[in-house]
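At this stage, I wrote out one protein's amino acid sequence and its backbone structure tokens, and that material follows here:
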Amino acid sequence: MAPHGRCYCGAIEWTITGKIDTTGNCHCTDCQRISGSAYGLTSFLVSGAEGVEFKGTPKIIQGKSDAGKSTQRFVLLPSPAPTNESAELR
């Protein structure tokens, strides 16, 4: 069964269809602010953002990592909690 989840109100659901490459803790400033702790739990998909299917439409926020790489955070509104993100790794 593919990993899946939904926002608290159920307006948006997501399913991971891509292969998960690795899961770990990210200590960048954005992840610290979003999680309210020293890190955020992150899974990297081999296929990138294309490896996630949504039911509903999340807001996409473009940004830059602490290292200057491009990032995309998929946010469930009205809650600002991100469901997933895409980051330029190289």
The beta strands are 4-6, 13-16, 20-26, 40-45, 52-55, 59-64, 70-75, 82-87. The chain has one domain: 4-87. The helical segments are 29-35.
